[in-house]
Design goal:
By secondary structure, the chain is mostly helical. It contains 22 helices and 3 strands.
């Protein structure tokens, strides 16, 4: 995935997580009869699925998760996250108009109104995109804020007029799974059917238009038709999911499962499958926790479960997870610190004409500009790695405090010679082949010495005809020198 997509996904998940957490404090509804049970009894009731309301809610959450996961894959890959959020807010005035038209809280009328409002929102976005120079993100923001403001005004008007049966109307804002009906399940099933059929029939065309719109247009694929079809399906998915998670949080289910799947999948078919499974898992997990706990609204809990799965995978996935990258970075930093210490030890021994193998902590402090505590810590790391031995030496005649004296082991000496060889060979390569000035090569060699592989070093040696000295006239340890030095310290 593109780094900009990944960054945008993270920002959206943080935003949606804040929304879901805040809605916990509002009038969202949990599953269950409101009777007092302990959590073991509640868990048993849920898994037995004997309660019709539990079966209905579990099936609805499953259908919603699959639908949102499938269509959300295209929302994420095509960077339509804000479009999904816009549509979820745009249907609110349709809900209010449907209530006013029917004069009561009739699910069919509310869904018809939401559908018309969603279609109107899609048309407004399409018209703004086609007939103005306003960027898509700006047009989405305009439609989102305008439609949502209209919806709030209409709901406020309904409350002031005082309809006798207006209670529960605000459930479309935050979701109310306890009011999920058979008609809602039929709507979810129809939305899933349309989404599945559209994706199966247009899979290759959707791939082409998503990854290379110019090429797909040049070979006759109707880009605008497919884009409009996706918009309509997103609207269907949003409308059918309103009763479960509400207009505020439904966009989260379009983004988070697909974003989680993008951390693993590289092929679109795998991506669609994993995204739908993650959506279904979040839906079932959220409904279970809502049923299990007390005063836990299902809609926000579903979103929080989905967010938790995302962050868990983001941190713990093998090799590319945040935790593994952090541990790897720590390991690399530790290795570089050891290699810098070994290089310093070699330079001190070299300065003494290779006659004295003992290196005092004071010499290391002077050469590297480190404090005594830092040097002692690095010496301890070398000793712990088996690259050096240490002992305490004192010089009362010179009136000096006791110092730690370091002696490289054969393994440590060989390692030090390799690092010095990498550094000086690279300096010579830059001066001879890249025509750097000799006084400009040190900083670059300081970085590259830690990443040069043995095969690359051999190629550089052959290219430079096995040089003996670097641009500053200092010895470049050869393979023979390294092994001889190692052997001399083992005898």
């Amino acid at each position: 995935m593109d780094s900009r997509i990944t960054k945008g996904i993270k920002n959206w998940i943080i935003y949606l997580g804040i929304l879901s957490a805040s809605s916990l404090l509002l009038d969202a509804k949990q599953i269950g009869s409101g009777e007092e049970f302990n959590w073991l009894t509640q868990a048993e009731r849920f898994f037995e699925m004997k309660d019709p309301s539990v079966r209905r809610v579990a099936l609805g959450a499953l259908l919603m998760g699959i639908s949102c996961g499938l269509i959300g894959s295209f929302v994420v890959t095509r960077r339509l996250s804000l479009f999904g959020d816009t549509l979820s807010h745009a249907v609110l005035p349709g809900v209010a108009i449907g209530f006013i038209w029917a004069g009561e809280k009739d699910n069919f009328s509310l869904m018809i109104g939401a559908g018309l409002a969603g279609f109107a929102g899609v048309c407004c976005i399409s018209l703004l995109r086609k007939f103005t120079k306003i960027h898509q993100d700006s047009s989405l923001g305009i439609v989102l804020s305008a439609f949502y403001a209209i919806g709030i005004c209409l709901l406020t008007r309904i409350q002031k007029i005082g309809y006798s049966n207006q209670s529960g109307l605000d459930s479309f804002i935050f979701g109310q799974v306890s009011a999920l009906s058979s008609d809602d399940l039929i709507g979810l099933l129809i939305a899933l059917g349309f989404i599945g059929i559209f994706i199966v029939l247009n899979f290759r065309q959707l791939l082409a238009t998503g990854f290379d719109p110019q090429f797909s247009k040049s070979i006759g694929i109707p880009n605008d038709f497919l884009q409009f079809g996706l918009w309509v399906l997103i609207a269907f998915c949003v409308i059918s999911s309103l009763q479960l998670v509400g207009v505020i949080l439904v966009s989260a289910m379009l983004v988070i499962p697909a974003a989680t799947a993008s951390l693993f999948s590289k092929r679109m078919k795998e991506y669609l499958l994993l995204s739908s499974l993650l959506g279904a898992g979040a839906g079932l997990g959220g409904t279970f926790l809502s049923f299990l706990g007390k005063n836990l609204p299902a809609g926000p809990i579903i979103v929080l479960v989905s967010s938790s799965i995302f962050f868990l995978i983001l941190f713990l996935r093998p090799e590319k997870g945040v935790l593994f990258r952090w541990l790897n970075a720590r390991s690399v930093q530790s290795r570089i610190a050891i290699e810098n210490m070994l290089k310093t030890a070699f330079q001190i021994v070299e300065q003494n004409g290779f006659e004295d193998n003992e290196i005092s902590s004071l010499e290391i402090m002077k050469r590297r500009g480190l404090s005594r505590a830092e040097v002692e810590k690095e010496i301890e790391n070398l000793a712990h790695s088996g690259l050096a031995t240490k002992n305490l030496s004192s010089n009362p005649a010179a009136n000096l405090p006791p110092q730690t004296v370091l002696t490289l082991t054969p393994k440590g000496w060989e390692y030090a010679c390799r690092i010095v060889r990498n550094h000086r060979l690279w300096e010579l390569y830059l001066t001879d082949e890249a025509h750097y000035e000799p006084d400009h090569v040190h900083d670059d060699a300081e970085k590259i010495e830690h990443v040069l592989g043995e095969e690359t070093v051999r190629q550089i040696e052959r290219l430079l005809k096995n040089p003996k000295t670097d641009p500053h006239g200092k010895l470049i340890p050869s393979i023979t020198d390294i092994h001889q030095g190692s052997l001399s310290r083992s005898t």
